UniProtKB/TrEMBL annotation:
Protein name: HTH tetR-type domain-containing protein
GO MF annotations in UniProt: DNA-binding transcription factor activity; transcription cis-regulatory region binding
Record organism: Kytococcus schroeteri
PROSITE patterns (alphabetical): HTH_TETR_2
Gene3D superfamilies (UniProt xref): Tetracycline Repressor, domain 2
Residue ranges occupied by any HTH tetR-type domain in the UniProt entry: 22-82
Length: 213
């Protein structure tokens, strides 16, 4: 089973073994991405990618479940502790949940590579499925995190269906906001969502909820 510790996790271990693991992950991703962009089918095999990165095929599958996953640079997302701790009783709950979900999604891809991912998706649009996969998995993780942090919140005590049901709705609304933000006129497919695009979707959500005067 591939390692689940994200290579871009700032809170992760910093031992020599972990640094080497991150270096191997990066080498495999770089080799896979470069091979995919080259258009050379021979260089794009798992065996060739592993050889370019200086590891065995067996090691490749310790990091990625498929060649496409290595090309995109996908890892299992996780909920950043600091992002969860910023959520509190005050403020806009939908905005807070959206920010938490977005922060969680961002852990599924290496930092500083939006231009590369854009180029890869333009070359192979099917790679875009990893973004949807990251969103779906991140929603599940955010639901678990919200249940852990807010299950006993008195504000949810009388929520229809119970607190857990309300928290799932909370996470689902955040997912809807982010999906809508990808349709923003200023959003460039393949690039990271901008704070402005996310903010406009949040504002539109609240606008639609307001009762007609």
């Amino acid at each position: 089973m591939p390692s689940s510790t994200p290579p871009n996790d700032p809170a992760g271990p910093t031992s020599l073994r972990e640094r080497r693991r991150r270096e191997t992950w990066a080498a495999l991703h770089r080799a896979a991405a470069e091979a995919a962009l080259s258009g050379d089918a021979t260089a794009s095999s798992v065996e060739a990618i592993a050889a370019t990165a200086g590891v065995s095929t067996r090691t490749f599958f310790n990091y990625f479940t498929s060649k496409d996953e290595a090309v995109y640079g996908y890892t299992e997302p996780h909920v950043p502790t600091e992002a969860l701790e910023r959520m509190g009783p005050s403020g806009d709950p939908v905005a807070q949940a959206t920010e938490l979900l977005l922060a969680t999604m961002r852990t599924s891809t290496p930092e500083g590579t939006p231009a590369l991912r854009k180029q890869l998706i333009q070359t192979n649009p099917a790679l875009g499925r990893f973004r949807l996969q990251a969103l779906a998995r991140s929603e599940d993780l955010v639901i678990e995190a919200l249940e852990s942090r807010f299950a006993d919140d008195p504000r949810l005590a009388d929520a229809p269906g119970g607190p857990a049901h309300a928290l799932r709705m909370w996470a689902s609304l955040a997912g809807a906001v982010l999906r809508h933000a990808t349709t923003d006129p200023d959003h460039v497919p393949g690039e990271a969502l901008t704070p402005a695009a996310v903010r406009r979707s949040i504002d539109l959500f609240h606008h639609l909820l307001r009762s007609p005067e």
